[in-house]
Amino acid sequence: MNWIKLGLFKLFYISGFLVRFYDTCPPNCESCESDTVCNTCNLGYYGRNCSQCPEHCYRCSSDSNCSTCDTGYFGTTCTHNCSPGCKYNYCETVTAGKCRFGCRHNFSGSHCIECISGYHSENCTERCSPGCIDGVCLSNGKCTHGCKSDMYIGDTCCTKADTNYTTYVNTESGLGNVFYPLF
């Protein structure tokens, strides 16, 4: 490619056409047609003057239209957090936070905000009590359908009545959930 420098700009011959590029472009501008008008902005900037995109947005066409958010964010201005259940903390910008690569272990749903059946807690790591009917409980551990029998009492069906086994302890062993005596 041949070029000639003339003052603030260079002239290039590209495919038989004379194209002018400026040496002194506006800040955050990759290529420009003058020292004040930008043709192509750096990532994270937009427009003829290369204004900065909103926070957590690295590709946008205006301050209210982001096409690519940073990992962990979504929305037209990248102001919403992806669900902590999204695998790799990555969700789609334009699908209202749908998890792109599916859910982390024990999470379910397209937005990965529910725990799979049998688990509860913020990170879906706690097993529901073995006293819960169908092993199903709410996010706080309360059994959804009540207790299996009179041997379990309370909202979480974790206490066995009339025995020395009074507290349910969740273990993540290969043996499953175990009741430990409190003596």
Provide a descriptive summary of the structure in words.
The protein is mainly β and 183 residues long. Among the domains are: 3-51, no CATH class; 53-115, no CATH class. It contains no helices and 19 strands. The protein has strands spanning 3-6, 9-14, 17-22, 29-32, 38-41, 45-46, 51-52, 57-62, 65-69, 73-74, 80-81, 107-108, 114-115, 119-120, 126-127, 152-153, 159-160, 167-169, 178-180. The chain has a three-stranded antiparallel beta sheet, with no helix packed on it. Strands 4-5 form a two-stranded antiparallel sheet. A hairpin with a 2-residue loop joins β8 (57-62) and β9. The chain is rod-shaped and about 85 Å long. Residues 1-9 and 162-183 have low confidence and may be disordered.
Total helical segments: 0
Shape: rod-shaped
Helix content: under 10%
Strand ordering within the main sheet: 1-2-3
Query: Radius of gyration, Cα only, in angstroms?
Result: 29 Å
Approximate strand percentage: 25-35%
Tell me the total number of β-strands: 19
* Biggest sheet character: 3 strands, antiparallel
First-residue to last-residue Cα separation: 86 Å
Which class do the helix and strand fractions yield? mainly beta
| Regions with little confidence, pLDDT below 50 for 5+ residues | 1-9, 162-183
Please state the average pLDDT score.
Answer: 77
